[in-house]
Specification:
The chain is of the alpha/beta class. The protein is built from eleven helices and twelve strands. The chain is globular. The structure holds adenosine-5'-diphosphate and magnesium ion (MG). Adenosine-5'-diphosphate binds next to strand 1, strand 2 and helix 1.
């Protein structure tokens, strides 16, 4: 396989809280290859957003990255200072946030927000007439993401757009500098189903057109099934299964992945009732010494009372379960 564009090894990110030290990300390994779309899926609270906030250096204080290595395009991201990181963000790596309304600046017209990114990062804007060139490019970006009457609407404020249009604007801002990697954090969670499909198709089209890699973060395995090449399933701060999307959905090896599939009627048997996964994600304090899914797992045994490593079940397909080789039903 090619060299990964982004490579994360043994990442650990913590938040000191009154209840104790929360380890939100605990030993995560991930690779993103050039041009691919990697899905990150798991219930709310499994550490998806914190993993990628760690990558782009935006973990909120008092949280901190406690260990691990993050390499992007040959650069060791953890060794970069704040300026170096800022330079990388928006130019080579762009991330769209879960909530478009709070991520966009309500006090600035859309034009100003896109132009600001372009003026800071786009190297190919002419020196003379830079401002006009940035405006022209900003309008092009809005057209690219399917905003009607882009040349007029560019002077509107974020609140004048619908939720779907705001997500598109955020994608336009993220793509303004042609990043090598787009991290889209729940880009469609707040949108209705039709708009959801449009935004996801748009991201897919742009990925192919611009040749970039995409990380698509979602709690919905149905979205992953339709829009990604590979997937990593996260649970309680760890990756518990990775593989090619089709293979992982056809032959899931971790009971948690099976649970997620059971939540989506169109992926499993259409007549089967939707079965929620009983129980809750454990508190991320002082975990270890036992499988994190133990309390919720119908296949648990005394052998699971230890830290379970990721093991290959087939080339390119790994799972963190001692019974991954068995065909559990
Ligand atoms: P996901 O994106 O998978 O829904 P997150 O990555 O946002 O989950 O968060 C994972 C866990 O990290 C949360 O459930 C919480 O326990 C912890 N966490 C995240 N942010 C903070 C914070 N600012 N302070 C304390 N704990 C946090
Ligand atoms: Mg999140």
């Amino acid at each position: 396989m090619a060299t990964p564009l982004l490579s994360i090894r043994n990442l650990k990110t913590c938040f000191p809280t009154r209840a104790g030290l929360v380890t939100a990300v605990d030993g995560v390994d991930l690779d993103v290859y050039p041009g691919e779309c990697l899905g990150i899926v798991g219930e709310s609270g499994s550490g998806k957003s914190v993993t990628f906030a760690s990558v782009i250096g935006l973990v909120r204080s008092p949280g901190y990255v406690a260990g691990g290595a993050i390499r992007f395009d040959g650069i060791d991201l953890r060794s970069l200072n704040a300026d170096g990181r800022r330079g990388l963000r928006g130019r080579d790596i762009a991330m769209t946030m879960q909530d478009a309304l709070t991520a966009l600046n309500p006090a600035l017209r859309v034009a100003e927000q896109i132009e600001e990114v372009l003026l800071a990062h786009a190297m190919d804007l002419p020196r003379k007439g830079r401002q006009e060139a940035a405006r022209t490019r900003a309008i092009e970006m809005l057209r690219l993401v399917g905003i009607p009457a882009a040349d007029k609407r560019i002077d509107d404020y974020p609140h004048q757009f619908s939720g779907g249009m705001r997500q598109r604007i955020m994608i336009a801002i993220a793509l303004s500098c042609r990043p090598k990697l787009l991290i889209a954090d729940e880009p469609t969670t707040a949108l209705d189903v039709t708009i959801q499909a449009q935004v996801l198709d748009l991201i897919g089209d742009l990925r192919r057109e611009l040749g970039m890699s995409v990380v698509l973060i979602t709690h919905d395995l149905g979205v992953v099934a339709e829009h990604t090449d590979r997937v990593a399933v996260m649970y309680a701060g760890q990756v518990v299964e990775t593989g090619r999307t089709r293979e992982l959905i056809d032959r899931p090896r971790h009971p948690y992945t099976r649970g997620l599939i059971g939540l989506i009627p169109r992926l499993s048997n259409l007549d089967a009732p939707i079965r929620p996964i009983d129980g809750q994600v454990p508190e991320l304090i002082g975990l270890g010494g036992i499988c994190r899914f133990y309390d919720r797992c119908e296949f648990r045994s005394s052998l699971c009372r230890t830290d379970i490593p990721m093991e290959a079940v087939e080339p390119g397909h790994h799972a963190r379960c001692i019974r991954a080789e068995e065909n559990l039903q």
